[in-house]
Design goal:
Strand content: 15-25%
Largest sheet: 6 strands, mixed
CATH topology of the largest domain: Rossmann fold
Number of helices: 7
Order of helices and strands: EEEHEEHHHHEHEHEE
CATH superfamily of the largest domain: P-loop containing nucleotide triphosphate hydrolases
């Protein structure tokens, strides 16, 4: 097996030093691996993803990535899309972290990045929606936009928080297929929060469940 791209050692997750949401977290994540995180609402799953993304610090312990320039793609529950802007605009914004300073400053990505955005939009089946604002899309379509944005970003690690929530079975299956293809084609490691344990077990290589303040792997 390849070297882990992400290692978490004895980490405590939360906001109060003496009252962590999740304690003693130990995880190794490898390229091309999909890991599911399950547990009841409000137990700390989102805080764990936000800690891995670097948005909040761990209370203790270490979170290390194996490479110097690891790109982390984060799809929050609310997707983080600019709802008054178009599908094309939202997707191409995923390329800007890799663009030059002036391209980022004036939101002028190169032809290469525009082509990558076009291909990503096509791959998620939204070519006909490229000029539509996000606000006019269904929930499933908005999730596809968020995944297309991540494809352009080319993350080494993809973090997705309840990206399958409130979707019908057919739409959820399509989103799962997109995530699986991203992992297989780009060697991305994915950590997916999903409240549905049975569903997570069908497409994740490993499933970790938060019970109390403990995160432990369960058999699938």
């Amino acid at each position: 097996m390849s070297e882990p791209i992400l290692s978490i050692s004895n980490a405590a997750i939360g906001f109060e030093q003496n009252n962590p949401l999740i304690d003693s977290v130990n995880i190794e994540v490898h390229p091309g691996e999909i890991i599911g995180i399950t547990g009841r609402s409000g137990i700390g799953k989102t805080s764990l993803l936000r800690t891995i993304a670097g948005l909040i610090p761990p209370l203790s312990g270490e979170i290390e990535v194996a490479r110097n320039e690891v790109e982390i793609g984060y799809i929050p529950q609310r997707l983080g899309l600019i709802t008054h802007q178009t599908v094309g605009y939202n997707v191409i914004m995923g390329a800007l972290p890799r663009a030059t300073f002036w391209q980022s400053l004036f939101s002028l990505p190169s032809k290469e990045y525009r082509d990558q955005a076009r291909k990503a939009i096509e791959s998620v089946g939204l070519t006909e929606k490229v000029l539509e604002p996000i606000s006019l899309l269904s929930g499933g379509q908005q999730r596809r936009v968020a995944i297309a944005r991540s494809m352009v970003q080319k993350p080494n690690i993809l973090l997705a928080d309840e990206c399958l929530g409130e979707l019908d079975a057919e739409t959820a299956e399509g989103i799962i297929s997109l995530i699986t293809n991203l992992v297989e084609e780009q060697g991305t490691a994915a950590i997916i929060v999903d409240h549905n344990l049975a569903r997570a077990s069908t497409f994740c290589h490993r499933v970790l469940q938060v019970q109390g303040t403990i995160l432990e792997e369960i058999e699938i």
